[in-house]
Specification:
single chain; 0% strand
């Protein structure tokens, strides 16, 4: 590992991740502060719930573009697997504890999901399927999300055996699971339990405007 490059990646990842897209979109469309609404999480789902689908979708696309920018920067600087994984840990940290929001922020999940769908899609999709099935059966967003974050590091272990280059980067490594485990630990450390799981479902259901 190149130490100067690692330091640069951590710094760049944090700064890009900390850009509060959801907060800015909400301010522009609605004028309100997401930190004072609902669960207080600065997320695209919160924008959908409190402002509607259009601004929520814009926020989501912005977070996805942030992720691709992070990955592209790694590609230009180093291009090694350790660098991609380091970026996908540091960028969510910035999103969760944004310097622009005085240490508050969202959950970093969009960066996490988008990044691993690029790096090793098939092992990661297994965890996503577990989330969707649990959500379908229980209708409990909070519980399903917890299960997803528990399952993800284990399903990412499969990347050591199966990670076709045609879909992902192609490397076989335990590093995916380690990086996934670090992010999931951050999620459980940061998360706030939603007062009502149904509220989270409104962003994707008929309740959205």
């Amino acid at each position: 590992m190149n130490i100067p490059a690692a330091v640069a990646i951590v710094a760049i990842g944090y700064l890009i991740g900390s850009v509060p897209v959801a907060y800015m979109v909400m301010r522009f469309y609605d004028g309100r502060d997401l930190r004072r609404l609902g669960t207080g999480n600065v997320t695209s789902t919160a924008v959908m719930i409190h402002a509607g689908r259009v601004p929520g979708t814009i926020s989501l696309v912005g977070e996805i573009l942030k992720t691709f920018l992070c990955l592209y920067i790694v590609y230009l600087l180093v291009g090694a697997l350790w660098a991609y994984l380091l970026m996908l840990v540091s960028a969510p940290v910035g999103q969760i504890w944004s310097v622009w929001l005085k240490g508050t922020g969202g959950r970093g999940q969009t960066i996490f999901v988008t990044g691993f769908l690029v790096l090793c899609p098939i092992p990661f999709i297994i965890a996503v399927v577990a989330y969707l099935v649990t959500l379908r059966v229980t209708r409990r967003s909070h519980f399903s999300n917890q299960l997803f974050h528990v399952a993800a590091p284990f399903t990412l272990m499969l990347a050591n055996l199966f990670n076709p280059a045609i879909l992902g980067l192609g490397q076989h490594s335990w590093g995916y699971s380690v990086a996934g485990g670090i992010f999931c630990a951050l999620f459980f450390f940061k998360q706030r339990r939603d007062n009502d799981d149904i509220v989270q479902m409104r962003a994707w259901g008929t309740y959205s405007r």
